[in-house]
Amino acid sequence: MAPGKRSKSKTNQPKKKTKTASNPDDYETLGGIDSWDWNEIGSQQFMGDESTGFLCLEEISDVEIDYEGDDATGKVAIFKRKKKDNREKGKRANPMAPLAMEDMKDFYDLDTFDEEKAAATETHQAAASFTDKPAKSKKDRSDRQKEQQNDDIAMDNAKQGTDAKRPKVEDVDQSVDVSAWGFVKLAEPITHALQYYKFTEPTPIQAKTLTKALEGRDMVGVAETGSGKTLAFGIPMIQWILQQEERPTGLTGLVLTPTRELAIQVKDHLQNMAMFTDVKVTAIVGGMSIQKQQRVMKQRPDIIVATPGRYWEIISSNQEYMDQLKHIRFLVLDEADRMLEKGHFEELKKLLTELSNKREVTTEWPEDVQGDTPQKVKQVASKYQTLIYTATLDKEIRFNVKSKKKTTAGKGGMADLIDSIEFQDPNPIKIDVTTEKKVASKLMEAKIDCLKTEKDLYVYYFVTRYPGRTILFVNSIDAIRRLVPVFRLLNVEVLGLHAQMQQRQRLKNLDRFKANDKAVLVASDVAARGLDIPLVEHVIHYQLPRSGEIYVHRSGRTARANREGVSLLLCSPDEVKVYHKLCQTLRHGEKYPDFPIDLSILGDMRKRVNLATDLDKIDHTEDKASHEESWLRKMADEMDIEFDEDLVLGKNNKERADQRKQANRGKAYQLRQELSQLLKKQILPMGASARFITGSAASNFVDHMLESEGDASTILPAHAKTRAVDDVKIIRKKKKTSKQ
To answer: Which residues form the Helicase ATP-binding domain (predicted)?
Structure first.
């Protein structure tokens, strides 16, 4: 049907003339079809497109047809209509008239159309319509609202800026002495920030790099974890922005980090340094709403801290953002060695290619073409300062940074990354403040030799004997999923952190861990790099790290900012080979000292751990069976078929399954009660009694019992409240004395 033509719909089918005579006076003759008394049919939805769709629908009633002529000469249709005195005049359609305002609600104005807002609205409406099923609409809607609230909270915590009241210059304690920073002339707002956070003196990496970085020199900085690398590259960026006579409006600095958590942490530190300025810092990371991050990008932040994957995803589809990238003033790679791992290096190489002045593009523009042959035109990018920071740097690369000689390192290695960087400085500086020890000087290291099945016991012993903020590192996500519920059953305040967690849950668990000084974080190596969690006292390697480099980064979560900390290895017989490699790589063959263990209390602790493990196995079996049944029910629901347990499981199997489930529940209840009773009791050394404290052979038993009297929360009342780091020092001192 051609555009603009009306579709004529007859609700009363035309009737052929019958042989029964009719009175001609009962009918009126209709003229041309366009002059008929049509009525418009209302439609709630637009029924066509811009080329061949309906513009409107009209109808007419009481129309009959007579035919004149015969088959030989041809028939002519005559339309006529019954006469009615009370017939209302038809309301014809006017398709060219503008729509009323109430009819415009389903349409968009092209001049003000926001594609992102429209997409978000449609998604929300689609999600709302999905909850029409009465059996689960309330629950699903509640869960979805909670999930959206959590998403918004997580994003608000990670996005640029905050609505919280920012401190003013008047809130700064001017008595804080920051004269140690006098070797560089910092802008006054930066000095105020240093005073506010009481950063009275620079760390070694800051002291050695700031002067050169402020002069615009390209640099590779190597320093131990927790040494203050973030301010070493953050202060020069903020200082440069503040020194410009005309405020820069585009992207000034791009900081790339390997993990989401590290990016958000770096963003927070930079915001702290810029709190008395109008410098805008934002984080662009995966696991969060890409639409929100695109809106943040539109606000043109001064500094972006990003993971390579998400940042490339956003800018690769937007030429405006790509152009911003080509005009940056600073490029920072934080924890550069981690970026070489799978999943990071490809996007990083793409970003470096876009920043390259050697990049060529093919053009067919007349002014660039010679003859009929397309020409390759050199891509011009702005000059930018490159700052690379890492905690580890291969020996073979340490001496090739300045020379830029091609190394023989394998594909994707640190050497390839250095070669990919186009340093603007012909003589980039390398500053290395690490020591031969490779770990922090105040880190106390020790090990416990144990069976693989006893590791849970020794972890429980350690976190009970030495309560404090502890990170327990494992090599697999399955280990995290097993350990977290076991230690929760033992009343340990435990949290999990791994790469398969949703981003909002990872951020939430990190915040909870930071807020609780007795929490235990069971983590994969996603938490081993760069995260600055304040006052972590202990790091336990539940499973030995696969390399010395990973050990250094794991252990770097404690003993930060000139504080003391403990790194404890749990070594089982199947890990001896890895242990010897660590000793050879990091300690020149010297073994780690043994951690002191009070064997007199291990018996009672073993009972608790065994009960918790058995109980967790039962819970895990029940959860697995319940999950499988829920999955089958969900599939049946989506296919609109009835779920028949007897048909799916079999009648006999169902009965056996019910009996087994009932037996497991009874056993779990019994184990839970037994464990609960044990957890209420205090643990005393073997042979000691709270009734006859003076008769105990335990050293200082009476004094320790008196100290803990009235403290119901003390699980080990017979033990002095010592720190793990002090006990390791005693062992080391005894070891040195015995050698002499």
So the answer is: 210-411
Q: For the chain, what is the largest distance between any 2 Cα atoms, rounded to a whole number of angstroms? A: 135
Domain shared by 457 and 553, yes or no = yes
* Contacts by residues 622-625 (CB-CB < 8 Å, ≥ 24 positions apart): 622/661, 622/664, 622/665, 622/668, 625/657, 625/661
Number of Cβ atoms within 10 Å of the Cβ of 536: 26
240 and 386 share one domain:
yes
Return the structure tokens found at 435.
């020591």
Distance, CA of 145 to CA of 152 (rounded, Å): 10
Nearest Cα neighbor of 198 from 178, 170, 181, 169 is 178
pLDDT band at 244 (very low <50, low <70, confident <90, very high): very high
Question: Vertex 423, ends 418 and 429: CA angle to 5°?
Answer: 80
Check: CB of residue 318 under 8 Å from CB of residue 271. Answer: no
- Write out pLDDT tens, residues 547-584: 888 898 889 889 887 789 999 999 999 999 999 999 99
Domain that holds residue 504: 443-598
pLDDT digits (tens, 9 = 90+) for 246-293: 888 889 999 999 888 889 999 999 999 999 999 999 999 988 888 889
Q: Are residues 470 and 352 in the same domain?
A: no
Look at the alpha carbons of 345, 350, 354, 356 in this order and tell me if their dihedral is positive or negative: positive
Both tokens of 138, joined, read 């309330």
Calpha distance 195→198 (Å, rounded): 5
Phi, psi of 663 (to 5 degrees): -65, -40
Q: Can you spell out the DSSP letters for 641-702?
A: ----HHHHH-HHHHHHHHHHHHHHHHHHHHHHHHHHHHHHSPP--TT--SSSGGG--STTHH
The domain tally of the chain equals 5
Work out the angle between the directed axes of helices 137-158 and 260-273 (0-180°, nearest 10): 50
Domain-embedded: residue 273: yes
Does 87 fall in a domain?
A: yes
The angle formed by the CA atoms of residues 256, 258 and 260, to the nearest 5 degrees, is: 95
